[in-house]
Specification:
This protein is α+β, with helices and mostly antiparallel strands. It is built from four helices and seven strands, in the order ααααβββββββ. The protein has a four-stranded antiparallel beta sheet, with no helix packed on it. Strands 1-2-5 form a three-stranded antiparallel beta sheet, with no helix packed on it.
Length: 232
């Protein structure tokens, strides 16, 4: 393990250390066996150091003051530029070509078409509470994130209840529409309080079908069926 250097690395700490070193060395030169020539050399080097160190400290302080003044000047300048730019952007006689030449943002007045979702959602089901399922929904392309894909409004959830051990239906018509949920997780309660869900589902298996919808209600593909038992 390398030894720790006794001479401090930061300039301010070094400045204090060297001053203390030379002060003690000069006062106890005889006891330390230091020659006058050695002390004279050190004192000359100390003077040179003091000159350059003081100049560096002053330059650093001047730079900080100049940087602060520059920031304040820029803030005032930017505020004036934004005021004039806002005037030019709002003036009908100023063309988009002129705005572009000025480096201004040209507003997009053509609405961007929203495409139907192309990916499918996936759900994990928490069955810790009796008569309750909590669905955490993610996208198949980002399974570790709850964020919906771009352009997606919510997730459509449908369920088919079947006796335990019976396979999930393959016919979509067998699945009841539960709702469209815009946030994850979504909680489904089988006690008669959730519209569309029966209050007598305890012990049965709930098979879920999910798909994304955009703001226009256009659907994406169905995800894989997810199944879980409703705790009685």
């Amino acid at each position: 393990m390398p030894a720790i250097d006794y001479i401090p690395r930061p300039d301010a700490d070094f400045d204090a250390w060297q001053a203390s070193f030379l002060d003690y060395a000069a006062k106890h030169a005889a006891a330390l066996g230091l020659r006058d020539a050695t002390l004279e050399e050190l004192h000359q080097l100390q003077k040179d150091w003091d000159t350059d160190y003081d100049a560096a400290v002053a330059a650093r302080a001047a730079w900080r003051a100049a940087a602060a003044a520059k920031q304040n000047r820029r803030a005032s300048f930017v505020a004036a530029l934004r005021r004039v730019a806002a005037q030019l952007r709002g003036t009908p006689d100023v063309t988009d070509a002129q705005r572009a030449a000025l480096g201004l943002t040209i507003p997009d007045t053509t609405p961007t078409a929203v495409a139907a979702p192309t990916s499918a959602p996936h759900a994990t089901v928490d069955t810790a509470q009796r008569l309750q399922h909590t669905l955490t929904v993610t996208d198949e392309h980002t399974p570790t994130r709850r964020a919906k894909p771009a352009g997606v409004f919510g997730v459509e959830v449908r369920v088919a209840l079947r006796p335990a051990g019976e396979p999930a239906p393959t016919d979509l018509d067998a699945y009841l529409f539960v709702g469209v949920f815009t946030r994850s997780p979504a909680t489904l309660i089988y006690d008669g309080t959730t519209p569309g869900l029966p209050a007598t589902a305890g012990g049965q298996t709930a098979h879920y079908q999910l798909r994304w919808l955009n703001a226009k209600g256009q659907p994406g593909p169905w995800g894989q069926i997810v199944s879980a038992t409703v705790g009685a």
